[in-house]
Amino acid sequence: MRLDRNPQNLPRQSYGSLCRLHPRAAKNRRNLAASAGMFGVIAALVALVVAGNANAQLDGFARCLPEVRTQAIARGVSAETFDRVTAGLVPDQSVLDAMGNQPEFKTPIWDYLASLVDDERIADGRARLTQWSDVFVRAEQQFGVDRHTLVAVWGVESDYGKSLGGRPLVRSLATLSCNGSRQPYFRGEFISTLQIVQSGDIGLESLVGSWAGAFGQTQFMPSTFQRVAIDFDGDGKRDIVGSIPDVIGSTANYLKRAGWRAGEPWGFEVRLPGGFNGRSDRRSKQPLAHWSGLGLKRADGKALEGTSEAGLLMPAGASGPAFLVFRNFDAIYAYNAAESYALAIAHLGDRLRGAGPFANGWPTDDRGLSRAERREVQELLNKRGFDVGPPDGRIGPKTLAAIKEFQAKVGLPQVPRAGGKVLEALRKP
After folding, report:
1. Helix-strand-coil split of the chain, %, nearest 5
2. How many CB atoms are located within 10 Å of the residue 376 CB?
3. How many Cβ atoms are within 10 Å of 218's Cβ, its own excluded?
4. Which of 224, 307, 419, 423 has the most Cβ atoms closer than 10 angstroms to its Cβ?
5. 331 and 257 in contact (C-beta within 8 Å)?
């Protein structure tokens, strides 16, 4: 390699201009070219290291799969099924990246709920309630879980089947079975996936989902599917991808087995007395008389009475909305162990019943945005010359970078977040 050649095939004018930036360019041109050439050498070495790592990963994967094969056969997966499904399989590095990457900031709960419980999802949910009313009646009768909660799970998990995820489960779970710190767990999920394929319940081509293996219209992990999915349309198969009755019945069965109590609420919003200094702990359940004695009142004005025990949930502290939650909230929480997630489903269910927004506001002066408003943010950014791609309401790195740059231009604090202040500023001429 000649180190005095144009290092990046730049036009002669560009290369010369680069050298002339140095006050003693005439003397140092060879040194600069050599340095640039050395950067090329380093880049080549890095590429070799990356390629070496990739080869090592492939070798490790090839050594790992026979171990998984032995375990799968011991659990009833035929050798033919394993070999057919894994033929030509290679690991997916993007799955490992997704597992290792952490969010750059924690999403405020008012942003989280604003996008999950918006007018679009409420309208779509009501349409599903009408369309599948006979199936919901059967599910309520058989499992005791109300239709509004079932629709809310469906809406939050996949936007009623619109967002199922696009990663092949076999590849994702095989990758995680042979890499990372949770290999035993993911091997179990991988083997459960093979069992689903072997049973014929769902075709291999339909088993796509999240990087971690959740799939279907209400996003079951494969082992969860094996445990609780049911055939609710009577066709002999359990299909939570293509059969809406199976989706509804399987979700109802999950919640019942998680402890759902028929005819009881998940909870309700309450108003706290001035100066309240209690803590948020939904697990520490007390009789309603206890909470009444502390000065808590229902936000809807109804009497705080009954024999059930409830825990206090204050997801944003005492200055935000507060809730007394019962056992049914815990059943929703079991679906995905996050209080914000359970609250989103509970609140969406209430909105589908006809209730309004929370009575108490969130402790912020910069409200969260609905998906329609997030798309508007992206549309307005594009119109101002920021390339954030087609508006889809998903706030990714490109949109966040554009928001930060826009904020700097208009004198707003540079906080990469799609909130009400950014939207109002973008709406101005």
Report:
1. 55, 5, 40
2. 18
3. 24
4. 419
5. no
The DSSP code for 320 is: S
- Nearest CA-CA partner of 381 in 353, 355, 400: 400
Beta carbons within 10 angstroms of residue 309's beta carbon: 15
Q: Report how far apart the first and last C-alpha atoms of the chain are (Å, whole number).
A: 56
d(CA 233, CA 211): 29
**Residue 323, beta-bridge partner list:** 269, 313
d(CA 90, CA 58): 7
Angle of CA points 148, 151, 156, to nearest 5°: 120
| Angle at CA of residue 426, ends 425 and 429, nearest 5° | 90
What CA–CA distance (Å, rounded) separates 380 from 426? 6
Q: What is the identity of the amino acid at 137? A: V
Report the alpha-carbon distance of residue 72 to residue 94 in Å, rounded. Answer: 25
Q: Render each residue's pLDDT in the chain as its tens digit; 429 residues.
A: 332 333 333 333 332 332 333 333 334 444 434 444 544 544 444 444 444 455 656 778 999 999 999 999 999 999 999 999 999 999 999 999 888 664 434 689 999 999 999 999 999 999 999 999 999 999 999 999 999 999 999 999 999 999 999 999 999 999 999 998 899 999 999 999 999 999 999 999 999 999 999 999 999 999 999 999 999 999 999 999 999 999 999 999 999 999 999 999 999 999 999 999 999 999 999 999 999 999 999 999 999 998 899 999 999 999 999 999 999 999 999 999 999 999 999 999 999 999 999 999 999 999 999 999 999 999 999 999 999 999 999 999 999 999 999 999 999 999 999 999 999 999 999
Residue type, 167: R
The residue to which tokens 């209690």 are assigned: 278
387/103 Cα distance (integer angstroms) = 22
Residues 413, 217: Cα–Cα separation, whole Å? 39
Buried b (16+ CB within 10 A) or exposed e, 37-75: beeeeeeeeeeeeeeeeeeebeeebeebbeebbebbeee
DSSP string, 228-253: H----SSSS---TTT-HHHHHHHHHH
Q: Which two tokens stand for residue 386?
A: 């920021």
**Residue 153: closest CA among 348, 293, 404, 396:** 348
Task: Find tokens 């042979």 and name the residue.
Answer: 178
Amino acid sitting at position 344: A
Tokens of 311: 């825990």
